[in-house]
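May I ask for a sample protein chain and its fold as tokens?
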Amino acid sequence: MNCWEFFGVCIEKRLELGNAILVLFGLLGLLSIYLAYRQLKSGQRAQQTQIAIHLHEDFFSAPELREFLYRLDYTGRDTAWKFAPKSFPFSDEEKHLDLLLYKLSFIGMLVQNGDILARDLLWLKVETAIVLENKQVLDYLEWLQSPTQIPGHASFSGVVHLYTSLFGKTGTAYERLSAYLDHART
């Protein structure tokens, strides 16, 4: 018999030049698709790295935010920041805290949308904990959604996703941050 049998189909053992060229072009096409896919993934990864670098530079470039971040970190000391609802509105502290929260929320939205990976943000883990695990900041988020302020306030919803991405649902602030998000949905 002059054929190879595969699943009851007989394929002749002779090879014609035209068929060999078709097989070769088919394999080259598959190889091209594979290489294009790898190039696309490599380009996406390079873009994510560039975003992470830009976020890092942006996050650490404002000295007044760094100073305020240190005040948040010094919980329990005289120099620590304390949330005072009566004097807080329109203060520099409100501007600094809101800017920190907006930046963290924006980064959280990038992670949620898949534009950047949480593993690219490990450099931000300490700062995220300083801000989002601070009792005074959590009090501020609750105050924002109080009936006298902005019930359903959701501008900082991305921080919950960022926190969950970096610390999981077992982080010390997860319950209170999750409550902020729940209030924002209602």
User: Anything to note?
Assistant: The mean pLDDT is 88.
